[in-house]
Structures are given as C-alpha cells and as structure tokens.
Design a protein that fits this description.
By secondary structure, the chain is α/β, with parallel strands linked by helices. The protein has 15 helices and twelve strands. Strands 9-8-7-6-10-11-12 form a seven-stranded mixed beta sheet. A five-stranded mixed beta sheet has the order 1-2-4-3-5, sandwiched between helices. Belongs to the Glu/Leu/Phe/Val dehydrogenases family.
C-alpha cells in the first residue's frame, strides 16, 4: 500500500542525513537508519459503537508503536476521517526524533481512528471513546506507551478514555497526558506547543540579530485556529508582536489594520472551536475572510510565519510568496507543515542570501514544547506531585533553549555553514535527534 506521508517524512530525514557528514564519520549509522525506519509494532483494531438512534457503527483504530529506545512510546491520538496508517506512521516517525530533542526519556508513537467527531453528539463521542479505549488499554501503560491528545482529541476525550482505562485495568496511573488539572494533569500543558513554538523562534530572532531584536514590533502570520495557533498567537501578543492572520479548514482571516488580532478575539475563536464551529461564525469583527484560502499569499508585509494547522500547508509557491512578503523566520507549529518543495525554497534562500535570508525551523524541533510538557506531566504523575504554572513554564523555556542550541551546534558540526550563513536548523534537528536514538538502539542491541 502506498504511504505518501510516511515516505515524505522519511525522505526529508534521509536527505538531510546524507547531505551532512554523519555517514562519512559514522558509516554504520546507515544500518541504524534502516532499522529505525520500521516501527517496532503496529496495532490495528475495530471500534464498534452506537449512535443516539441506536444504530451500530464501526471505525478503524490504530496505534503505531515506533521506537522505545529512549523511553515509553509517547505521542498523540488523532480522531479524524483522514486517519490512516501512512499518516500515523509519518507522525510516529517524526515523534521519535522530536521526543529525542526534548532531552526527556520518551520513545515515539502515534495512534487514533478514522472517526469524525464533527456532527456527533457529546454522548456519541463518549461512547466512541469508551469503545476505543476498551481495546487500546491492552497495549498501553505508564511504563509502556503513554498517548496524548491530537486533532479531534481534547481534554474531554482524554477524560473519558482515562476513566475507561482505569475501570478496565483497576489502576490509576499516568497513562494518558493532557489530563484534567485535578486528576493528574499538568499546568501549561494546553499552552505548551504554542508557547514552546514562540520560545524557539525567539531564540532564532535573537541569534540572527546578535541579540538586538525580539518579537517586539514583529508582524506574525499564523495558520490554524486550534490549540497550537491560539496559544502561539497569545504569546506573540504578550511579547509585543502583532498577529495578522489565523485560519481553519474553510478559509483564512486576515487583519486589515495595524492592531491585528487581540487576546479577546482569540478567546472568542477558542470558544467557537470548543463548539466545533467555523471561523465564519465569528461576529462583529473587521477582519477580511477569504474562503478556501490559506493566509500565506494574502498577508502583505510579515516578519514571521508560523504554520500551525496541519501537514503540507505551505507549498512551493506559498514559500516564495512569504519570502516576497519579507518573512525572515518560519517555524512549524504543525507536524511537517511545509512541503519538501517549500523547504527547498527556504534552504536555497538561506544559502544564497546569508544574513538576509529567511530561516526555517522544522516541527520536530520548533513544536516539541507540547510533548516536552507531556513528559513533565509523566514526571509529576510518577512522583504524585503537581508543579506550579511558573515552574512548568520555566522548565519549558529551558527545554526549548536546549533544543535550539542542540540543533544549532549540531548543524555547525555536521553541515559546516558558509561564511555569514545561518546554520541549517532542519539538518541540525534531524542529525541531533537521529544520532541520539540510533546510539541508544545500538547500546540495547537493536542494531549492530
């Protein structure tokens, strides 16, 4: 069966490893790549549930347990009609190296079902979650596999699944992350991916400007309007930037004045998302709504672009449009947010225009904040402790700084940049994440 998303993710990693000096210095790592490209285990199962009309429905459930060399499998559950093995393998593969970059002891995995929550009642979604977890509970655990939420799986669904796990296994353990605050969840977890994305880009801006610039005064284009986009937007505004766009699957909202989006508007959008309503339901606003569009070709002057919706949401032409609009930084809040052709546009521009270039950061580094705080949630559960929001946020800032520094220094070591050229954060992230996983696998006898 064709697996285009997985093949794209694998080729993106392989191409950067081959263009680095990693295989010259360590030729045996080619065998590690071959082994690491195959999941340790794939679990498929049926999910049978009942509608409010009493009709029997069946969906396909999955869990791809990709790599556990660094710790228990860790990665989200996605409920969306597009879910298939190719998408889950791509997400699980990316997750392995993303988790390695956090510096925490987590392996990589991903799961979900081709279930569409849209148009379903709360009772129907609850019934689906219970049925899904009745099977999945046999394959996960605090020291085995710790899923989290993803598209279509909010803290509410996590709660229903956690309750089902607890009843089925007769044990309370930190088996899912993104839990409610009063029963094992971590503060800052909902905000973590968006906040971490902005913290990472802040290091990019400071490095590129020699410490002279920050988000203050920057115009920032963001796609998506879910959890990642909302909290990235709020953090940008807090740091003095202006958010000029948000979007959903039906179209884009573009700011028409210098104020951009306010925290109040973003909170209104968040309320719409909770009720599964489109951005078209937003009332009393002065934004320009462009049906069926993504923001990238419709924003005028921008400094930073943060794709935060879904995979392959920045095309080659859109990449060129962002450069033409003056964007100097692009970082993926979504997984594999840019197509391979778009990445090539950014990387070519970086090489040709040196200090005046756009600088690209891949999702496996830039959006690692979410899973990092999931790892901190696991640590709190193990200790039966709950840390303050300030403690978690400080740890998140430290993890994102270490992640940026790791990508930067690895890029300098394995892909020597030309004079005046920004190091390739794409290559730095791929080499740093892969090396760590491959070394652990070798120590444990997974390859030799």
């Amino acid at each position: 069966m064709a697996e285009p998303e997985f093949e794209q993710a694998r080729k993106e990693l392989v191409s950067t490893l081959e263009n680095s000096s990693l295989f010259q210095k360590n030729p045996e790592y080619k065998k590690a790549l071959e082994v690491a490209s195959v999941p340790e285990r794939i679990i498929q199962f049926r999910v049978v549930w009942e509608t409010d009309k009493g009709e029997c429905q069946v969906n396909k459930g999955y869990r791809v347990q990709f790599n556990s060399a660094l710790g228990p499998y860790k990665g989200g559950l996605r409920f969306h009609p597009t879910v298939n093995l190719s998408i889950l393998k791509f997400l699980g593969f990316e997750q392995v190296f993303k988790n390695a970059l956090t510096g925490l002891n987590m392996g990589g995995g991903k799961g979900g079902a081709d279930f569409d929550p849209k148009g379903k009642s709360d009772n129907e979604i609850r019934k689906f979650c219970v049925s899904f977890m009745r099977e999945l509970n046999k394959h996960i655990g605090a020291d085995t596999d710790v899923p989290a939420g993803d598209i279509g799986v909010s803290p509410r669904e996590i709660g229903w699944m956690f309750g089902t796990y607890r009843a089925a296994r007769n044990r309370w353990e930190g088996v899912l992350t993104g839990k409610g605050g009063s029963w094992g969840g971590s503060l800052i977890r909902p905000e973590a991916t968006g906040y971490g994305l902005v913290y990472y880009v802040e290091h990019m801006i400071r490095y590129a400007s020699g410490g002279k610039e920050s988000f203050s005064g920057k115009k920032v284009a963001i796609s998506g309007s879910g959890n990642v986009a909302q909290y990235a937007a709020l953090k940008v505004i807090e740091l003095g930037g202006t958010v000029v766009s948000l979007s959903d699957s039906k179209g884009a909202l573009i700011a028409t004045d210098d104020k951009g989006f306010t925290p109040e508007i973003i909170n209104e959008i968040a309320a719409l998302k909770v009720n599964r309503k489109a951005l078209t339901a937003l009332e009393n606003h002065a934004f320009k709504y462009i049906e069926g569009a993504r923001p990238w070709t419709h924003v005028s002057a921008v400094d930073v672009a943060l794709p935060s919706a879904t995979q392959n949401e920045v095309s080659e032409d859109e990449a060129k449009a962002l450069i033409a609009a003056g964007a100097k930084f692009i970082a993926e809040g979504s997984n594999m947010g840019c197509t391979q052709e778009a990445i090539e546009v950014f990387e070519t521009h970086r090489k040709e225009h040196k200090g005046d270039a756009i600088w690209y950061a891949p999702g496996k580094a830039a959006n690692a904040g979410g899973v990092a705080v999931s790892g901190l949630e696991m640590a709190q559960n193990s200790q039966r402790l709950s840390w303050s929001a300030e403690e978690v946020d400080e740890k998140l800032k430290g993890i994102m700084k270490a992640c940026f520094d790791n990508c930067l220094e690895t890029a300098k070591e394995y892909i020597t940049p030309a004079e005046g050229e920004f190091p390739s954060l794409q290559a730095g992230a791929n080499v740093a994440g892969f090396k760590k996983v491959a070394a652990a696998m070798k120590d444990q006898g997974d390859w030799w």
